[in-house]
Write a structure and sequence with these properties.
The protein has about 500 residues and is of the alpha+beta class. About 45% of the residues lie in helices and about 15% in strands.
């Protein structure tokens, strides 16, 4: 057992008072032999500790270490684990997997004594109101769900480097629209404008100048035109770090991890990671950030005192495209296909593309909103837009290019497969399209529940059966009070007319 220094200090203090070894050892909670040893030496245990410089067992790597050291000298970036696996393959009788940690310690010691110089990082002095850093971070590890459904998303995170005040917005892609949404949300909350905004080399803000992909890291990266216009509107100077140098945005990189850890802790206190709606989840994140920012209010006040007030109009958080509705009742927006009501066929419409949805307008009148598709060459077909035409032309259903989109849930997919097994091809198509029309006319969830019950019962989901089981809407006529005519009202009007004349 190692004797702590505090006990020996107590021993020496008591011995000076009493001059008696037994009494001083008792009060210091030490054995008399131990007490006598430290009093005789006149040193603390930490001062008497002998540095261990000898080996207690043979060095297992002495034979082949010079060979490994040469390989590390030729390729300093070589990892210890890979080098050890190579040694095990070359000398299987001498090494086994249980020696990996010992070998890793040997390599770490070699790097410290004989390895190449390591990169040094330099702490920076931040000035109030000067610098804001913005970055995207994935939130999927928090396992957030909305009404039980997984909610994959990112967070566009902004931090003032002087006070560490933070804000941001939930988004679904690292796009210019998402970047605009996050930065404007931060500026609105802050009410002021920093001098600079630093980002990494996300394609939302920058692009590679040059076509040579082999030397991408050596290429100079500039800002794209949309991002420059966005920064110029607010009078913010855009800045970016070097390629593959995230340490240059160290404040936001560390804040990303701290923010997610804080959110996780408050989720544990909340007792659930499920939210009733996206708005409830957004409000929860804002509450977490408000609590963290409250502790930074003193340094934030120093920043606000030197920052410009937000006195410019916010930019719309969407881009606009014009498209013509095809004969298929679809439009192409950002290289993705969306279905629209067939009454718009052949007309030119205007699409407002937001970060997570698309609004469609015809002659300035809003027609519909659709979830935005991320990526290219994707499609989203709403069966309500095409079901009438498909019922008139059921033969087009079987080879319809976007047929998979006409199965809104697994129950509908099961219904079509079951009909296809028990009916001829055309009859199965017509039966399923009628079921789909019923879902469009009433409520999809009601039809889905009926199909689920039929599936559990093993009954073929024929259209007439589904229609009978579907609850018919109850129409209740309004109750009107009987009209009572009071002729004195007319006499009053006539009297008023005579007075006026």
């Amino acid at each position: 057992m190692i004797t702590p220094d505090r006990k020996v200090r107590k021993l020496m203090e008591e011995y000076q008072k009493t001059g008696k070894l037994c009494k001083a050892a008792l009060r210091a909670d030490l054995d008399q032999k131990t007490a006598r040893k430290y009093l005789k030496a006149g040193k603390l245990p930490s001062q008497m500790k002998v540095e261990h410089t000898w080996r207690t067992r043979p060095d297992p790597f002495s034979t082949y270490w010079p060979e490994a050291a040469r390989m590390l000298t030729d390729a300093p970036e070589l990892e210890a684990k890979i080098l050890f696996e190579w040694l095990c393959e070359c000398h299987p009788d001498d090494y086994h997997e249980g020696q990996l940690r010992t070998f890793q310690r040997r390599v770490r010691e070699w790097r410290a004594l004989s390895g190449p110089p390591k990169e040094v990082y330099f702490p920076q002095e931040h000035h109030p109101g000067e610098k804001m850093e913005t970055d995207f971070t994935w939130m999927n590890k928090l396992m957030i769900t909305i009404c039980g459904e997984p909610f994959p998303h990112l967070f566009c995170h902004s931090v003032l480097t002087y006070s560490n005040w933070e804000w941001g917005a939930v988004c679904h892609s690292e796009s210019m629209l998402a970047l605009k949404k996050g930065i404007q949300a931060t500026l609105i909350r802050l009410g002021h404008i920093p001098d600079q905004n630093w980002t990494d080399h996300s394609t939302a803000a920058t692009h590679v100048i040059g076509q040579d992909e082999e030397n991408t890291e050596s290429k100079k990266r500039g800002f794209n035109r949309k991002y420059l216009d966005f920064m110029e509107h607010f009078g913010i100077t855009p800045r970016t770090i070097q390629v593959n140098k995230p340490n240059e945005n160290g404040d936001i990189e560390s804040s990303n991890g701290a923010f997610k850890r804080r959110v996780k802790q408050y989720l544990l206190l909340r007792g659930s990671r499920d939210f009733n709606s996206e708005e409830d989840y957004f409000a929860f994140l804002e509450w977490v950030m408000d609590k963290a920012n409250y502790l930074r209010r003193k340094r934030l006040s120093e920043e606000l005192a030197v920052m410009r007030v937000l006195d410019v109009k916010l930019l719309p958080e969407y881009t606009t495209e014009e498209a013509r509705v095809t004969s298929w009742s679809t439009v192409q927006v950002s290289r993705n296909t969306y279905s629209v009501p067939s009454r718009l066929k052949g007309e030119k419409v205007k699409a407002r593309i937001y970060e997570n949805h698309v609004d469609l307008y015809y002659h300035g009148v809003h027609q519909l909103s659709m979830p935005r598709l991320l990526g290219k060459a994707k499609h989203s077909i709403n069966y309500r837009h095409v079901i009438e035409s498909l019922l008139r032309k059921p033969g087009a259903f079987r080879n319809y290019k976007y047929r998979q989109d006409l199965f809104p849930t697994e129950e509908f997919r099961w219904a079509y497969d079951e009909l296809s097994e028990t009916c001829t091809g055309r009859i199965a198509d017509i039966e399923y399209l009628r079921i789909l029309k019923l879902a469009a006319k009433t409520m999809e969830c009601q039809v889905q529940n009926i199909l689920g019950k039929l599936k559990l019962s093993g009954i073929v989901p024929r259209w007439d059966m589904v229609e009978k089981l579907s609850p018919s809407p109850r129409l209740e006529l309004p109750k009107l009070r009987p009209l009572k005519v009071d002729l004195s009202d007319y006499d009053y009007l006539l009297e008023r007319k005579e007075v006026a004349v």
